[in-house]
Request: fold
Amino acid sequence: MPNQDQQPPWGKKQGSQTPEEMVAQFIKKIQDFFSGSSKNPSGQEKPPNPLASIGKLLAIVGIVLILQGIYSAFYKINPAEVGVVLRLGQYHSTSQSGLHFKIPFIDVLHKVDVEEILKEEFGFRSREPGQKTSFERRGYDMESLMLTADKNVINVAWIVQYRISDPLNYLFQVDNVIQAVRDISESVTRRIVGNMDFDYVLSNRDLLAAEVKAELQQELTGLKAGLSIGTVQFQDINPPDQVKPAFNEVNEADQDMKRLVNEAEAIYNQQIPRARGQALQIVEEAHGYAVARINNARGASERFLSILTEYRNAPEVTKKRMYLETMQEVLPTVESIYIMDKDQQSPLPLLNLSRGGSSSALLPPATQ
Reply:
């Protein structure tokens, strides 16, 4: 059996190195490189050379700087971003999305997200945003308490949403843009609410938000803040907690008053048009009656004048005709008819056969 401990003729057999041994060997080589020490062929260490160590260090620093310059010369702008390049501290160019080049150590790049919607909250703070967002109101009373024009205290909470429209002005015109948005928004809102009555603020939330948005945008444009206001939304407008019970009572009374007014207006809208219609009907009937009476009177007068003309032409004939026509109209309506003769002592009844003997008329005494 061969001896396992017998070494090969070319030297001692080396086993595989562990990771710890490899790291230690690498560190030892780095120390030897920076120390500048080396061994001669006899195994004795040579004295270190300071100039060689400094040269090696400068070479390493130069290589690192060159690699860093090459790496920083190229930059990428995301689709939602805009890059502002400064050359020696002055504005040079604006880069859109994509891959770009800049001079290393001379150009400075600032990336600005122009699509992100930023927001500032007043009178509350959001906690755990999501589908069921919770809000924290305690500790923010100084932001929300305001005084209205009629000397009432009101609690107003609102949100301002904005985005960056001019990256250059956003970066270099205003020192603290977020604080400027908060200060100007609070100032504008307090001024507008202070010029309105309590009831008007409660019932005109949309108009209040539109006015605040317009004035806030005007102020920020004047400062060249580089911002565009998207939305001003009032989350909550209520009286302070100390006066809420009294306010609720007043609100209930106001609702009752409005309900009674609406009921009265409903009754008014029912009765007044009906009365007006009846009045117009009576007036129209009166006009119709007047027209009928006038027409009848005119017809009677014209008939009388025509009879008068005929009477003047033939008096006896006209008189007898009028007498006969009158008797023809009157006799059918009387129940009993008596013919009086001056020579007889008692009246002679006349039987009216056309009416079944049940009706006759009283006839005045006949004259010869």
